[in-house]
């Protein structure tokens, strides 16, 4: 079992870099830390589950815009194009399943 203290892992950078907390051949768990205005460009991927720990932002899911804030969970179906933009410092954990 791996215990990860997320608060200790939070790190903001001038250029967005996800911090991979765990990975296997079919699963990846990144910690996402976005400054206001930083974004992850829309891209298709496997199923994704996103849990917002703090902050606010927007998730672009296909043609939809979803407001993100603390405590929200978004499930992106396999193949859906998704991207995220920080409106204020945004911290989220994602689980990507391919």
Automatic annotation (TrEMBL):
Cupin type-2 domain span: 31-94
Taxonomy, superkingdom: Bacteria
Name of the protein in its database record: Cupin type-2 domain-containing protein
Source organism of the structure: Candidatus Scalindua rubra
Lineage of source species: Bacteria, Pseudomonadati, Planctomycetota, Candidatus Brocadiia, Candidatus Brocadiales
């Amino acid at each position: 079992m791996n215990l990860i203290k997320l608060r200790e892992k939070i790190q903001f950078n001038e250029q967005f870099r996800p911090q991979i907390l765990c990975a296997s051949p079919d699963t990846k768990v990144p910690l996402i830390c976005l400054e206001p205005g930083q974004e992850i460009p829309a891209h298709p991927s496997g199923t994704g589950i996103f849990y917002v720990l703090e902050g606010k932002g927007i998730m672009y899911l296909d043609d939809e815009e979803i407001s993100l804030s603390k405590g929200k969970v978004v499930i992106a179906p396999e193949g859906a194009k998704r991207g995220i933009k920080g409106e204020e410092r945004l911290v989220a954990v994602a689980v990507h399943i391919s």
